[in-house]
Amino acid sequence: MELWDAYDENFNLIEGIALTRGEKIDDGVFHLVCDIIVRHADGDYLIMQRDARKHYGGMWEATAGGSALVGESPLQCAVRELFEETGIYAETLTEVGRVIDTECHSAYVEYLCITDCDKNSVKLQEGETSDFRWVNRETLLKMKKDELITDRMQLFIDELKG
Questions:
Q1: Which of 40, 78, 92, 107 has its CA 20 to 30 A from that of 24?
Q2: How does pLDDT run across 4-52, given as a tens digit for each residue?
Q3: How far apart are the C-alpha atoms of 105 and 29, rounded to whole Å?
Q4: Is 149 helix (H, G, I), strand (E, B) or coil?
Q5: CB 132 within 8 A of CB 124
Q6: For residues 6 and 145, which has the higher predicted lDDT (pLDDT)?
Q7: Structural domains present in the chain
Q8: Helix or strand holding residue 85 (H, E)
Q9: How far is 142 from 118, CA to CA, in rounded Å?
Q10: CB distance 65 to 78 below 8 Å
Q11: Mean predicted lDDT score pLDDT of the chain
C-alpha cells in the first residue's frame, strides 16, 4: 500500500489527511507528483520507454518521475524517482514549474536535471521502463503525440518551447 500526503491547489500540505494509491481523492485535494527531464551536458535529452504492462505501455516519455510518498518533499521525491527510474543520482535539480491537474487530482512539480553521466550507464527499472534513448532537441520536438507522453515539460524548458 502506497501512502501519499494531501495537498491543496496552492501546493500547501493538508495536515491530517493521508491518501492511498488507488483510492478516490476528494475534489480540491491533490497528491504530489514530481517529473524530471534529463538533459545531458552535450544537449541531448533522455527519453524512457514505458514498460508494455503499464498504462501507455510502449510509449516514450521525456521525464522520469512519480508520486511523492508520505513525508517526502518535492525535491526528495524527484531525487528518489530519478535514481529509481534511470540510475542517475543528482541532488541538484532545478525546479522549472508547477501544474495542477484537477482531473487526476495531481499537483505536479517539474524539475530539470543537467548531467554529464556516461550515457550508457542509464539503468532501467523493472516493471516501469523497457528502453531508453538520448535524443537531440529537434528529435524530441518532432515526436508525435501517439509516441511521446508527458510533453508537459515543453511548457517549462525554454529551448523546448514552440
A1: 78
A2: 999 999 999 999 999 999 999 999 999 999 999 999 999 999 999 998 8
A3: 6
A4: strand
A5: yes
A6: 6
A7: 3-155 (3.90.79.10)
A8: helix 74-86
A9: 25
A10: yes
A11: 91
